[in-house]
Amino acid sequence: MASNAKIVLRKKSNKEGLYPLAIRITKNRRSNYHYIGHYIELKDWDEKNIRVRKSHPNHKRLNSLLVTELSEANKALIDLQSDKKDLSANQIKQKLYKSSQSTSFFEVAEEFLKELEANNKIARLSADKARVNHVLSFSKNKQLTFQEIDEQFLRRFRSYLRNKRNVSERSVINNFVVVRTLYNRAIKLGIVDKKLYPFGSDKIRIKFPEAEKVGLEKEEVIALETVEELNENQVHSRNVWLFSFYFAGIRVADVLKIRWSDIYDGRLHYRMDKNSKLLSLKIPNKAYSILDQYLKSKHHDNDFVFPEMKKADFKNPKDVYNKIKTATKKFNKYLEQVAEKAEITKKVTMHIARHSFGNISEDKIPIKMLQKLYRHSSITTTINYQANFIHKETDEALDSVINF
């Protein structure tokens, strides 16, 4: 499909209530914008005739500039099309304006977030959008350039996140990862010179802090299984938690998407939401007792085992994401109540079902088998994960010295 350029007034105002003039580059129904650097009031824009109205004091100069910008863009588009290269709207924009240093951090971020949404990566979209907004809140500048994001900027941003936003060290690093991702993208697009890259061993280092992974002990899981006098919501939340635990800590998003048709030949067959891997696991006897409790609500083979996703619109990834998020919040609320009744002092959430499996398995299961059960792509990931729960050797070494 041919690409085209058009003058537009973007409908996102700045702090002064003025709106930016831009050249819109469109290819395959996807658009990207090159901001001209001038802002006007909404009343001064003639949408029909695509020009600045006479009510603006500099309407002649601005209209002349717009005609020039559009003419140059169209000439460059013809040259690019003659090369017969299939470029996206964003790549076309960068080719047209690669000598310009005015492309902002937030323009690149906006395109990045659009790609996440188009690829239905809703969980990451939600997290990374918040992190981009942290940069905006800190910089207070929607036209922030990559040249301005240097080591000093990042150190001040880190201080802002710690002191003003009161976020954890891991969250600080997650924010830096998004900035680094966008900076690398800007380098590839020719927006900023690689020599200005602020990350590296001798600059700003991105190193994740060690996270403490707390899992339940075997006795605590038994207490969770056997605690009585629970209400309906508490029983259901416990069932979902135990179902996850019985299958080596299946993530809650995967548990809720399990259908009755996924269960056959005594096995659970499902595709992971995180990386689309297919997995087949034998159904433990304990899991059958949970499944039996939900048979009465089964309407057909393709129905969901658990009720949370029965009304989800799977054509709308945001709806699916929101229903999983809401369900997880609800589960965690009732699991806290179940844990209190079971006299478990640790915080019980859906997430620690996975940690609990790792904690109880310790070094009893070969690492290659654990890799399969955890569905890790790399055995290094499994080794690093399981290292949080293997304490036998270090405990024995300590005892050998101090027990005299």
> What's the number of extended β-strand segments?
8
CATH architecture of the largest domain: Orthogonal Bundle
| Overall 3D form | elongated
Low-confidence stretches: 388-392, 397-404
Q: What is the helix fraction of residues, given as a range? A: 40-55%
What fold name goes in the CATH topology slot of the largest domain? hpI Integrase, Chain A
Instruction: Give the tally of structural domains.
Output: 3
CATH superfamily of the largest domain: Intergrase catalytic core
> What are the secondary-structure elements, in order, as H or E?
EEEEEHHHHHHHHHEEEHHHHHH
Structural class: mainly alpha
Explain how this protein is built.
This is Site-specific recombinase XerD. Residues 70-133 form a coiled coil. Keywords: Coiled coil, DNA integration, DNA recombination, DNA-binding. Residues 103-187 form the Core-binding (CB) domain. Belongs to the 'phage' integrase family. This protein has 15 helices and 8 strands. The protein has 3 domains: 1-100, no CATH class; 102-211, Tyrosine recombinase, N-terminal domain (DNA polymerase, domain 1); 218-361, Intergrase catalytic core (hpI Integrase, Chain A, Orthogonal Bundle). The chain is elongated and about 80 Å long. The protein is mainly alpha-helical and 404 residues long. 25% of the residues are buried. Strands 1-2-3 form a 3-stranded antiparallel sheet. The chain has a 3-stranded antiparallel sheet with strand order 6-7-8, with no helix packed on it. Residues 388-392 and 397-404 have low confidence and may be disordered. Strand 6 (263-264) and strand 7 (267-271) form a beta hairpin. The chain has helices at residues 59-82, 89-97, 105-118, 122-139, 151-163, 169-188, 218-226, 232-246, 252-256, 285-292, 317-341, 352-361, 367-374, 379-386, 392-402; strands spanning 4-9, 19-27, 30-40, 45-46, 51-52, 263-264, 267-271, 278-282. Helix 8 (232-246) packs across helix 11 (317-341), helix 8 packs across helix 12 (352-361) and helix 13 packs across helix 14 (379-386). It starts with a strand and ends with a helix.
